[in-house]
Recover the amino acids of this structure.
């Protein structure tokens, strides 16, 4: 398994300069840097190429993740909104190909976070979402890009809340470049068993996000990492595992993730780097 981290551990905004984090991730021991699709879709081509070349130089795999905003909701009953979302995702897939990014995960089947002031028609939204994701999967196929659909907790979205829903959804999509993305933070809320959820997902698992129940770096909380590791090994998973810690308040990231108190022990940059490097070593030992 390759171990990575999300850039937003250090940042307060989604749309930033990802370039410095490539060498930083490599220097801290990671194999992967995950970046935000929100910052990639409209990035000039020369900067996209620079990311690609820096990742190649540093021997870092780049992956992408995004929760589509409401105006790009590909599960919307409003056809204009749905088509805008598909157009946005296709533009993002074009940029990913230029950057040599072959995997994108997140809420790319609906929008995030869900607006619960509006009525929820899950059955209708699900049918529309499946139609949209099939179109996106077919567009991504010639690029060799895999779409990994993240199951998230009920407070953030309503279409896919656990591994069973995600697996059934992916089966209905019926495209070999569409997989399930699990996340230990969300699993802690929704699943009865980490082990069973992973094993029952089996061959449909394409990406795995890890973090503690309070969003700290893996190894600083109570998530049962050995149980998770055993499950991944039992299904012979050899894919990408990316930590997604959020420990600092402020900015759009802090607001969107709902980080309302400092979880870093008021760490400076040096301490943040030390903590995540220790977590990287912990993960490589646990999942190795």
């Amino acid at each position: 398994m390759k171990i990575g981290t999300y850039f937003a551990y250090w940042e307060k905004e989604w749309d930033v300069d990802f370039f410095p984090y490539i060498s930083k991730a490599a220097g801290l021991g990671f194999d992967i840097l995950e970046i935000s699709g929100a910052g990639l879709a409209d990035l000039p081509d020369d900067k996209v190429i620079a990311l690609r070349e820096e990742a190649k130089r540093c021997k870092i795999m780049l992956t992408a993740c995004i929760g589509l905003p409401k105006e790009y909701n590909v599960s919307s009953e409003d056809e204009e909104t749905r088509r805008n979302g598909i157009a946005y995702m296709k533009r993002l897939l074009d940029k990913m190909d230029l950057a040599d990014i072959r995997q994108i995960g997140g809420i790319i089947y609906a929008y995030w976070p869900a607006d619960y002031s509006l009525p929820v028609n899950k059955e209708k939204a699900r049918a529309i979402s499946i139609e949209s994701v099939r179109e996106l999967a077919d567009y991504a196929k010639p690029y060799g890009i895999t779409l990994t659909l993240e199951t998230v907790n009920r407070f953030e979205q309503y279409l896919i809340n656990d591994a069973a829903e995600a697996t059934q959804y992916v089966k209905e999509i019926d495209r070999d470049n569409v997989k399930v993305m699990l996340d230990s933070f969300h699993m802690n809320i929704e699943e009865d068993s980490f082990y069973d959820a992973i094993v029952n997902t089996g061959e449909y698992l394409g990406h795995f996000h890890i973090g503690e129940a309070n969003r700290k770096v893996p190894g600083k909380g109570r998530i049962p990492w050995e149980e998770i590791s055993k499950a991944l090994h039992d299904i012979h998973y050899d894919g990408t595992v990316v930590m997604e810690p959020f420990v600092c308040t402020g900015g759009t990231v802090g607001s969107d993730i709902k980080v309302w108190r400092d979880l870093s022990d008021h760490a400076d940059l040096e301490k943040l780097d030390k903590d995540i490097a220790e977590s990287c070593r912990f993960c490589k030992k646990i999942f190795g």
Observations:
- Strands lie at 2-6, 32-36, 61-67, 103-107, 146-150, 178-183, 205-210, 240-243.
